[in-house]
Amino acid sequence: MAHTVRPPVPDTRADGGALTRFTARHGSTLERAREVIRTREHWSPYAEDPEDPQAYGRGARAAGEASFRRLLGRPFDLGQPGRDGTVGPAPEAGGERSPYGGPLEVSYPHCDPDVLLPAMRAALPLWRDAGPEARAAVCAEILHRINARSSEFAHAAVHTSGHNFLMAFHAGAVHAQDRGLEAVACALAEQTRLPAASLWRKPQGDGRAVTLAKTFTAVPRGISLVIANSVFPTWNSYPALFASLATGNPVLVKPHPAAVLPLALTVRIAREVLTEAGFPADLVCLAAEHPGEGLARTLATRPEVRLVDYAGTTAFGRWLEDNARQARVFTSGSAVNSLLVESTGDYRDMLANLAFSVSLYSGQLCTSPQNLLIPRDGISTDEGHRTYEEIVADLGTALDALLADDTGAAAVLGALLGPPVLERLERVMAGEAGKVAVPSRAVRDPAHPEAVIRTPAVVALDANRAEDRAVLLAEWLGPVVFAVAVDSVSDAVALVSRTTRECGALSVGLYSTSPEVEAAMEAACAEAGVMLSANLMGDWYISQSAVYSDLHGTGMNPSGNAVYCDAAFVSARFHTVGVRRYGGAI
Amino acid sequence: MAHTVRPPVPDTRADGGALTRFTARHGSTLERAREVIRTREHWSPYAEDPEDPQAYGRGARAAGEASFRRLLGRPFDLGQPGRDGTVGPAPEAGGERSPYGGPLEVSYPHCDPDVLLPAMRAALPLWRDAGPEARAAVCAEILHRINARSSEFAHAAVHTSGHNFLMAFHAGAVHAQDRGLEAVACALAEQTRLPAASLWRKPQGDGRAVTLAKTFTAVPRGISLVIANSVFPTWNSYPALFASLATGNPVLVKPHPAAVLPLALTVRIAREVLTEAGFPADLVCLAAEHPGEGLARTLATRPEVRLVDYAGTTAFGRWLEDNARQARVFTSGSAVNSLLVESTGDYRDMLANLAFSVSLYSGQLCTSPQNLLIPRDGISTDEGHRTYEEIVADLGTALDALLADDTGAAAVLGALLGPPVLERLERVMAGEAGKVAVPSRAVRDPAHPEAVIRTPAVVALDANRAEDRAVLLAEWLGPVVFAVAVDSVSDAVALVSRTTRECGALSVGLYSTSPEVEAAMEAACAEAGVMLSANLMGDWYISQSAVYSDLHGTGMNPSGNAVYCDAAFVSARFHTVGVRRYGGAI
């Protein structure tokens, strides 16, 4: 492979051998990551069990909570240049408030972009000249240290995004780390496609040959701005953060005002590791903002910013594409995910799988299914024919069974992200979206009595009614599921296509025992550009995305142009500059 | 490698086994092309000698000329749908005129986009479903047939772009074919990074494992519009044409009105091969335009068009980026290339190399050096110190020696592209750009008395004079070279950086025996984003680009964002859609 013949990294930095240690420590992990992104098999270096003593030590969950508690009620310093103010700690000054109750009372530095951006730009050459392998090793060390503190990150995710703890440990910690490492592995692969050096020899007619000694150097684009969301502040920003950093770009992280802490922790760790490795800490900075400041707009249109990654509303994604013209803009926006229930050979498992899929994190995942399309004449199952009405009722029963116990329900549902989600659910419960077939109920988490937790409402819609179509062709983020009666499979497939093309989708589901129906859905999904999950049962759900294996997004529909993590997501972040030196005619 | 485990291409087309034959015929060529784009070594399957009897048969040059002559004075039919008019044959009706004299009197079909684009879109699914390997084989067969007719293509290039025959045979035929095959190899590599199918197995706590059978399918973006130029109609469009086609996109070629024939031939051959292989011919179409129609603007902003590639002026490239917002736009625009003469150990060879570089095709290559930066105090050489004035005079002597004989000079210079180039040269000769140090002279090609052929003018400029800087910071396409006096190496390096950043550059040159100067230029070129060629001697020139080895462009400066052929150039042309099928908990 080309990357094995690269010259050693020139090491002129005073780092006490840290870079060499990081390179040795993470070499085999990076090699394995590069292998699995080719094979797409299951793998992760980060243990999924928060109580795994080998991975995290004994009592890691409690220790992580204690570490998290120590962060609260005090300033979070980062040592960044250009500090000109403070964000928080009071919520009215930009401080965060836990969806499980109470303000975090953490304050963050606010920095002047006119100081911060030049400092970041000045840090670029040393990082660029270090080369892809050194950058990958530093990134892997950052992720390694984040991983060691996964429980602390999980508690931060609980109290900013409203995840339940296990989901926070997964989506807010280890799976986000996986997405980061995946991006590092992709970046290493993409940057080493060309040899660092090669000898070119062209025979001439006279028996001699022209020779040229060539070098190919990966050169970053410039400062990378990562605008994070509040739902998955780490999972939705680590791909961009690490893809940009690993390809040589300084990264400025602009957190969502409601979820600063997980990214402040991330930036602090990155700055520590960079410093230890002899690189400028300002290669990674945080841009916390004052309430109403609109800092994302200001930063995204700065000439120094050459990459913008954004996860959030489709509308602001479009604004960025229209206005941040000096940058390459990657977006992850809204999604309306559809799922067709056509037939099944395992009715009970299907219902259980569906109930869990629509309940997990209260349907607030970007991959949660919203529109369940069901033939109005019913479906055939291993338990005989089931009518549309029976399926809806049976789904209600499955939801009741899954969410019967408040403590168990809270662990699946997490908390509602904020007042807009609750207001939307209340409008649905008032019948605004259609007839409520399965009502939502409030769940009380004994450990967090202030948390707003609700079970999903199932609303019966009819695909043939114009007003119902208007309802289902919009995103209803939160615990709202539409059971949409359709005339036929072909109508359903057409509706899936239309929804994906018009509203964007990240995930489409299907339950069917018919190869023809599966083929039709597969063709429609290829045409509209969305991943299809067929007949998922047991402990794997449509909303889940397996890092190193599943691509997240396709870049083909309005849900966004970012794909975690394909070659285009990474190769747009750097360029290659060649040098040719004449080597004589020999 | 992932690509070896793909399932066989499903072959439901009635093609008489043609696709199987193409796959067998080109398998090893494609494999070798994939290897050399990794190693960047010298290679080509297309012979550079037009008289090579093994490659092209005896008398190929004359036979090619006869074939070319048979095309003249008659309609060029393509069998495309939606024909609503005729372009040409008269020049005032859009017919081409040879830079070597006389109209070609060929007419082309004009087609209604409202018929053509839907027909192309309808052709997409079968081509998409054929898969990367089948598409690569078809593309390789198209290039193979184009290669067999290289002499005919070269004559077409002579009489549209004004190349001399050998240059036309290279840049207009075999090297363009190389760029096409390079793009096909890159496309095959990029599309097969993920396995077509893989089994994912995740162990569960209970000793069982969740399994998912996954497929990953490359899906094209949509119709690809390739807007060609007149200087290198094939060389500048084959990368895009073949990258788009190989990744599954139908391709609409919009030729420059002055150079339709080489692309009409290309489209005809592509349509023949596609038809033979059982695919719709309308996957490749030509969009000839009426004079003043502005068809590029109309087509580029159509919603069906999802990729636009353009080679031409930077201004129209910007218009496309601003207006074709529904598409991914790749541009190749203007360039102002600089070369610093700082010192040399081989003064005679350097002068000979420089003289040829500025003379080849009358400086009309996008990689031709325009600004020769020379220290005003002179340089050290193996022949002792040389003053600025001596270097300019010696360059004039080297040009005289190279271009002494009219027939030989015509073979190097080719013809001027058109009246604007001649007018610009005449303004320069009138002293408008500065003091003429080496005058241009008219050359008479005995075989083409009507051709407008001129030797290069060398103009003395001073980097310290504001009016001279304004002159050198603009593109003077044609036989115009500026010998720019600079105070110091650091001034020269700064001027190279500024020129590249402000005007765009595709190539920077250096003659120096000093490692420090070389390092400074290398750093400046990495920062500004332009390829550096150091101390080229003998038969390799700064304006040359070795396909499969040199990247053409960096995407970092205003000369354009297209790079022939990096991963980003190809991976943006398709997306990947995954399907996950539950395989049970086993």
TrEMBL record, chains A, B:
Pfam families: Aldedh. Residues 118-514 form the Aldehyde dehydrogenase domain. GO terms for cellular component: cytoplasmic side of plasma membrane. Residues 1-62, 74-105 are annotated as: Disordered. GO terms for biological process: L-proline catabolic process to L-glutamate. Residues 28-43 have a biased composition (Basic and acidic residues). One of its GO terms (molecular function) is L-glutamate gamma-semialdehyde dehydrogenase activity. Keywords: NAD, Oxidoreductase. This is Phenylacetic acid degradation protein PaaN. It comes from Streptomyces subrutilus.
